[in-house]
Amino acid sequence: MILVNNPGNWGKIYSPLKHATWHGCTPTDLVFPFFLFIVGVSIAYALDRNKHLPETHKATLLRIVRRGLTLFALGMFLALFPKFEVDTVRIPGVLQRIGVVFIIAAILFLKTSRRTQIWTTIVLLVGYWALMMFAPVPGIGMANLEPATNLAAWLDNTLLSGHLWKQSKVWDPEGILSTLPAVATALTGVLVGQWLKKPSVEAGEKIAWLMVWGVICVCLGLIWDLHFPINKSLWTSSYVLYTSGLAMLGLGLCYWLIDVKGYHRFTTPFLVYGVNAITVFFLSGLIPRIMGMIKVDTAKGEVDSKTWLYESFYTPLFSPINASLAWALTWIAFWMLILWVMYKKNIIIKV
């Protein structure tokens, strides 16, 4: 997402680095659900010991809520900075959704059985489908999936009017109702994490079933797409199945290559980013805002420092679309350098 969120020119971006306009799915649309999926997997590992110690549940619940609210607060800070316009600040957001989903998924893992988690996932997906496809939209009419007139958009605009995504104004891609199927995405990860932790199951069998269920979920998502289209902004149930299936396939492949076959050398850059993932996501959103506040006098007038750097060192050397990509790749390299130093010094900032 650092690559996607930091082009040199928003009007010059390669198609795979764009979100789908509405229905459909691009490689960029896989990043967020993959992250929520692996959050779910990590919950199963991080909280497994606490789950079997009821006397620790109260303290664990407090930690869960504190971590989720911290993520929400970080997202709100990014939304407010630098103008801090509280009256029009966007309340939903990526970090906000991660925080909310983490709290719900972690509590469900801690307090319920695997069977209950499976049924909760099914109810969330089927219930969301039923609401979006059949529930009339107040003041509008029949159920629909149009950007500004669907049920999720109506709820967002009713409860958070004036505090939504500025590009749409009347709906939000991280809105209230679509957070329910996002919880289901994390729960698929929780279920996978519990399967991977089973000591009685051989690695080969774990990988085989990961691949089988990955293919099943992808196929179910594509079939459901015919009636309830794959759509990231709505986080449709078909989108959950499709992306969770792909995440299972990706995790199965990584498990086989890294844990079974022992190929570790190529993983270091990903590990360097992964151990401080929230930190780099937050800072990579903050720094460009700060650069926008720093002005530089040029022959064409005053411009912000980001524009000056981009137009001085990138646009003269590349075609417009490649200059935009080169700028984004520079950000990847810049953060890699910082994170590598942090990694070598064992500096891990935990939220």
Automatic annotation (TrEMBL):
Keywords: Membrane, Transmembrane, Transmembrane helix
Kinase found in the keyword field: no
Bilayer-crossing regions: 30-47, 68-84, 90-110, 122-141, 175-196, 208-227, 239-258, 270-291, 324-343
Keyword Transcription tagged: no
PANTHER family according to UniProt: LD22376P
Protein name per Swiss-Prot or TrEMBL: DUF5009 domain-containing protein
